[in-house]
Amino acid sequence: MKYQTIEDTIGNTPLVQLVRLVDDDIRERNNVVLAKLEGNNPAGSVKDRPALSMIKKAEERGRIKPGDKLIEATSGNTGIALAMAAAIRGYKMVLIMPEDLSIERRQSMAAYGAEIVLTPVKGGMEYARDLAENMQRDGAGVILDQFANPDNPLAHYESTGPEIWRDTDGQITHFVSSMGTTGTIMGTSLFLKEKNPDIQIVGAQPAEGARIPGIRKWPEAYLPKIFDAHRVDRTESVSQGDAETTMRKLATAEGIFAGVSSGGAAAIALRIAREVENATIVFIACDRGDRYLSTGVFPA
């Protein structure tokens, strides 16, 4: 008998219908809102998919081999996923991240055996990315580079997109995803548009002043190289308040315990559901809510 390994449990996450957050207006419009529960991946987020993909593809090309040291600048979920994937495949992992990110994320990375390098808050992810580049130039390890690596969106082209198409029986009309590295929206968009060019791809961006983990507006010089604006039909901004309020409602009204970026994507999906008719709207619930408890977004 062949048993599964932990790698085999990445992907094929549930697609569930929102029930109590869908009001009469949305029902009368004959719209369905579905959440893709990426927190069900083994390391707890959508980033499990590209993390394993980037390591395995780099191995296949002979760029890395077990025992090597990998370096990545990360805002959290990719770091946890890479720490897990590195543990699975036998690599040393160095993760560089701003010091203000939640303690749960740092502890999760350390639990998988990763070394953590904290950078000043004021430098943001831009500083962390620059430091990673400097370390690679100094021979400290190899950067997989989630921001420029085509194996990031490829993971979603090969898995996330096909799963959504399969589980909606091809009925999806709108896809909503937070935009951070943009790997999820790039790869999923490419697959869905090949199946039906009329599917609307909607990117979630933070409103002015919002600081939502996993959602970014990048300065032009740091815009992810994997990003292609032509694959996004529209972008919608979400405020800090709306993202956090909807995140809490997902938990209390739907039993979906997810993070702040998931709340942002859900808020936009519900916004769209009040504008259109006869729609099947899918949003990515990027991760689990338990890695945000220390931040106070779920007040006791």
Automatic annotation (TrEMBL):
InterPro entries xrefs: Cys_synth, Cys_Synth/Cystath_Beta-Synth, CysM, P-phosphate_BS, TrpB-like_PALP, TrpB-like_PALP_sf
Key word Transferase present: yes
Pfam families, sorted: PALP
Annotated keywords: Amino-acid biosynthesis, Cysteine biosynthesis, Pyridoxal phosphate, Transferase
Catalytic activity, EC: 2.5.1.47
The keyword Amino-acid biosynthesis is assigned to this record: yes
SUPFAM superfamilies per record: Tryptophan synthase beta subunit-like PLP-dependent enzymes (SSF53686)
Cofactor: pyridoxal 5'-phosphate
GO molecular function terms noted in the UniProt entry: cysteine synthase activity
The protein's annotated pathway: Amino-acid biosynthesis; L-cysteine biosynthesis; L-cysteine from L-serine: step 2/2
Family the UniProt entry places it in: Belongs to the cysteine synthase/cystathionine beta-synthase family.
Protein name stated in the entry: Cysteine synthase
Species for this entry: Robbsia betulipollinis
